[in-house]
């Protein structure tokens, strides 16, 4: 707690189901923007739909939109999108012009869903799908729209039906600030920890970063990965997202599952994902070998010398 300088800070730890939460005053009950830590939720949704036979990992993403896929993107599959191997850039090429004036507040708000889909269908991938790893908010956002099109269900409703409700995540939403929650949403702050930042408006990038959740809901989400059998409807999907699917880097030292970064430990693999918005940060991680899960949040923009992620990472490795 002392290592992280932010108005609201929460470190929530579960060890074999026994929870310990430390927070600044009033912070434990707030709901937080978790940014890119939303991607494991999208990955779990994909795994669940694939298990149910409603989509397949190797379905062409472009074909989900019901038109003849342009040849340039026809080979990009749902699996490529969630594993950042699609060849797409981090963000659409025409994204930055409208985003730059709002870069420190709400850069995504002015780029709606139809523009994300149009940018995908008109994209020229940098690499052949499946050959290189490049982290892409664009790709995961396209995944969300492809799944919605394939199931004929809006993203918010799809997430609620397939992930949030089965896991009992009543304090979690993808619909925006204030939606479906009796408590208060955390207020984001700039890097100085004083200046307030407006709530995130995610535009067409919901699958990549729309989740807002309470610390206890984040722990529930992580605990489900530790004990998949406790959620029968998602048990196979929860196991699937723990399996390694690719390795990259020098000596292929970095391992990834469908949605998680995976690092080796003396107690077996640990899984984690970080996220940040213009005024908030989040860390989600779990280690099956120690029965440990860690959810951490802070209501301040990421800074280059930030101690937040290293501290949360250290808690994950030390809590068991």
TrEMBL record:
It comes from the Bacteria. Residues 6-304 form the Beta-lactamase-related domain. Pfam families: Beta-lactamase. Gene3D superfamilies: DD-peptidase/beta-lactamase superfamily. InterPro entries: AmpC-like (IPR050491), Beta-lactam-related (IPR001466), Beta-lactam/transpept-like (IPR012338). This is Penicillin-binding protein. It comes from Streptomyces niveus (Streptomyces spheroides).
